[in-house]
Task: structure prediction
Amino acid sequence: MSQSVMKVMQGRDLRKTSARQKITHILSQAGIYLFLLLMAAIVLFPFYWMIISSLKSLVEYRLSPPTFWPMQALFSNYADAFTTASLGVLFKNTMIVGLVSTLLSLVITIFTAFAFARLQFKGKELLFAALLATMMIPGELFTITNYATVTHLNITGTYTVLIVPFLVSVFYIYLLRQNFLQIPNELYLAAKVDGTSDMKYLWKVMVPLSLPTLISITILKMMGAWNSYIWPRLVANDPEHRLITNGLRNAFTDTTGDVNYPVQMAAVALVSLPLFLVFVFLRKYIMSGVSRSGIKG
Amino acid sequence: MVESKQQWKAWLYLSPAIVLLLIFTVWPIINTVAMAFMEDYSGLAKIGGDTAFRFGIGNFAKVVQNADFQQALINTVLLCVISVPISTILALLIAVALHAIKPLQKALQTIFFLPYVTNSIAIGMVFAAMFNVIGSVGTRRPLISSYGIVNDIIRFFGGNWVNWINSGSEHWANMFVLITYIVWNALPFKILILLGGLTGINKQYYEAAKVDSTPRWRVLTRITVPLLSPMLAYVVITGFIGGFKEYTSIVGIFGESMGPVHAKGSMNTMVGLIYDSLASNNQGRASAAALILFGIILVVTLINLWVSKKHVHY
Result:
C-alpha cells in the first residue's frame, strides 16, 4: 500500500518539475527569439535606411529628428542617380566583363578540372599541389607585377585587361575537380568501351552531373565582377570601361558633410538591387559555394 | 602504364590554364620577390618610371621606417584584434540561437546571410550616411541640422552625440565606425560556417546534458564550443587573413582619401599602402610592402594554427 502512495507522490513531483521545466523552456525560447529578432533588426537596418533615404527629398533628409518613412516618396532620386553616375554605361560594362569572363572561366575550369580528375599524366599530383599552394599568397602580390605586365602589353583601358588576368581560379578548379571525382570512374570506362570521345563524355556526362557546382561558380564569378574595385581602378579607370563599383565611388566622392544623400543612396540601392535579386532566386547555390570556399565574391 | 597519347591529351586540356597561370600567377611571384630587392626601382618606364636600380634591402627599410606604414600597421592590427573576436562571438551566439529554434529559422537564417551579398563600397556609403552629421561640425559652436541616425538613437537614449566621421573627428570614433561595419560584414560567413558545424554535432551529447539538467551556459561552454572548435578555428583564421587585407570597406566609408577630411590617410591599411606605392610608381617599394604583408599573414596564421592545435578537438 505504502508503495503505491509513494508512486503517486512521485508522479506529482514529476508533473511539478515538468511544469517548471516547461515554463523555463518557454522563457528561454522567448529570450532566444528576442535576441535573434533584435540582431536581425540591426543587420537589416542599413538596408532599410538606404531605401527610405533614397526616397526622401533633401530637405526631409536633413530633418532632425529624422522621419522613419518618407513623407512623400520621391522616385526622381533614382532617375537623378542613374544620370549622375551614368549607371547605364557602368551596368553595360560590368555585364560585358562579367559574362565574358564567366563564360571563358567556366570553359577553362572544366577542361583543367577534367584533366586533374580523369586523365593520367606525369607530375599530376605535384602540379595540383603547386596550384593549391598559390592560393595562400595574397592577391596584392600578383597585382603589382600584373599591373606592370598589362602596362607593357599596352592593354590598359580595355575590356581585355579586366577579363584575362582573372580567368583561371585555382579555387574553382579545386571545387570542380572534387565534384568530378565523385562521379564513378565506371561511367568513364563504360563510355570508353563504347568508343565515346573524352570531349563528348566531358560535355554529355560530367558537366550535366556537376551543374550545381558550375552554377555556384557562375554566381560567385558574376558577383566578383560586380564587386571588383581595386584592379579596375588601377588599369581601366576611363569612363568608357569603368565598372560599376568603381563608377559608383567615382560619381560620389564625398562621403561626409552636406552631401546629397538621397540621390547617393538611390545609386547605392540601384547597384545593390541585382545582388539582392540573385540572392533571392539563387540563395542555395551561393550558400553552398560560400560554405566550401570562404572567399568573398 | 600511361599511354603517351593520353599524356599529350592531358596537357592539351591543361594548356589554357597553364599559359594564363604562367603569365599572371607564376611570373608575378618571381618578379615581385625580385623587385622587392631592387632599390629605387620604378619599373614602368612606359609611364615615366626609372628603371635604374641596385640590389639591396633598402625597400624594406624604407617601408618599415615610413610613418604612414607604421600608422597603417597599427590600424590593420587594431581592426583585426578588435573585430575578429567580436564578430566570432556574436556569430557563435546567433548560430547557437538559430540552432535552438524551429519556427522562423529559415527566414532568420536568410536575413543573417543578407550582408554577404552586398557590394562593400556601396554599403560602406550607407554606413557613412548613418554616422554622418550635417552642419558645421568641428567649429567651436557647431550648428547642426541633422545629427545622423546613429547619433539620433544615442540622443534618444539620453547620450551625447559624437562626431564619428566628419571633419575634426577623432581616430577612435573613425575606428569604431569601421569596426562596426566590418563586424556587420563578417557575420554572415561566420554564422553560415558555425551553423553548418552545429548541425553536424551528435544530438546525444545534448540529450545527456538534458538528463543531467545541465544549465544552458555550461552546455554552450562545455559541449558546443569544444565540439565546434574546428569551425571556430577556421572562422578565426580566415577572419584574421581577411582583416589584414582590409581595404575596400575603408574606401566605402571614407572615400579614396582613406580618412576624414581633416586627416587624410589616417585610416589607411597595409593593402592601401601597397596601392599608394603603386600609384606613386614605386614598384620596388610596393613589392617590399606586399612581401611584408605576406610575412605578417603567414606568421599570424601559424600562430593561430599553433594555438588551435592546443585547443581544437578534432
